[in-house]
Amino acid sequence: MKIKEKSIIVLMFILVVTLCSFPSRDAFPAEKEKPPIVFGGLFMLSGRAAVVGLPNYQAALLAVEEINARGGLLGRKLELLARDTKAQPAQAVKEATMYIMRDKVDFLYGTASSSEGLAVAEVALKYKKILFSPEVTTDKFTVENFNRYIFRTDHMNTMEMRSGAIYMAKFPYKRWYTIGPDYEYGHDAVRAFVEEFKKMRPDVTIAGESWPKLNEPDYTPHIQKMLEMKPDAIFSALWGGDSIAFIKQGVGFGLFEKIPYFCVGGVGDSTGHQALGKDMPVGLHGGVKYWFGYDYTPKNKEFVQAYRNRFGDYPSLYTMCSYVGMQFMAKAIEKAGTVDTEKVVDALAGLTIDTPIGPQTLRKEDHTVIAPHIWGKTCKDPKYDFLVMCNMQVVPGEKNAPSIEEVMNWRKAAAAKK
């Protein structure tokens, strides 16, 4: 064999050995996907309270899906778990604890009733885990029960009741009847309303009051009492399914034709409007943090359409608060550059983000969002198969929010009572 041929054979042999010894594509492990950032969702998904809990969940899910479509956060996808709290504080605490101890979630998200929120706030403090609540409104959440790890996008009761007092003070009614659910939120909301209203209208009196239990099936005794006492007007703190049930039963007694009705949260909540349809009486007064049809920003129209496309409903105040809450969490994680609890807490406190209703800020001192409230009356609109809000009047957040000095004084007073 010639030398040249031998050289070629040797080179071919070397090439074959080299190719065979070179690792194949399969020999290189694919880059391991980073684990998701997990939110332990606490939502009221059964019973009458589901008219609040389901929109809370759907809105948070929409925000998560939008964030993931943009690539997620820190190179990781978001994952939202969901468990039913059944509107019971003990159940909410159980689920929150399981999320932390068993599922090792990064954050807790949810709780809607004030009783749930106050209970889970203790869990958040114990385990140093962020609880971001879109709905808890009792003042206690930011006063005597406040801790570093709790945040909310809904108002505190004093904010909403102050806006209501500003709206209602313009009417001539002096003798009022109040009704609210017999638990933390109801008592705190009615207390705040009466205090704020009497500051603006010292001439008003509370002629009577009712405290039906949460999820009350029969409001007949309360309605009959109102009709017997004949107050000038009724103030209601009923919300969600309770508001829907009360209005249905009140219509049967002709209550709203005889006595002007002012309801915070229950009237103006588009979830309730859609559930009642044309059965919602015309002319009821309602106040809410968000009404989907109000001309806030072009971004709100996009949000309404996105929610409609995804779930088929119009977004409610519960929807907005939850959607914005998840946006706050995402922005804070991005700002912190980590999911470390302490660093995300620091990023959340004082954070301002752009939302469908305009810029909103989580106050550093009380972890509560300052936002406007809208008051108006129910009316018909041929574009919808349910009643909408008309003659809307906006109370700016700067007018309805207690000052930081007020909040700190309340904390001192609460601490002195312990």
Structural summary, described in words:
By secondary structure, the chain is of the alpha/beta class. It has 2 domains: 37-155 and 296-370, Rossmann fold (3-Layer(aba) Sandwich); 158-294 and 372-400, Response regulator (Rossmann fold, 3-Layer(aba) Sandwich), CATH 3.40.50. It is 46% helix and 17% strand. The strands form 3 sheets. The chain has a 7-stranded mixed beta sheet, with helices on both faces. Helix 6 (184-200) links the parallel strand 6 (175-179) and strand 7 (205-210). Helix 3 (89-103) packs parallel to helix 4, helix 5 (157-168) crosses helix 6 and helix 8 (240-252) packs across helix 10 (270-276). The longest helix has 20 residues, at 50-69.
Descriptive keywords:
418 residues, disordered N terminus, 17% strand, Rossmann fold, 7-stranded mixed sheet, single chain, globular, alpha/beta, 5-stranded parallel sheet
Order of helices and strands: HEHEHEHEEHEHEHEHHEHEHHHEEEEHH
Structural class by SSE content? alpha/beta
Strand order of the largest sheet: 7-6-8-9-10-13-14
Note the main sheet: 7 strands, mixed
> How much β-strand is present in the residues?
15-25%
Radius of gyration: 27 Å
The CATH level-2 architecture of the largest domain is identified as 3-Layer(aba) Sandwich
Distance between the termini: 104 Å
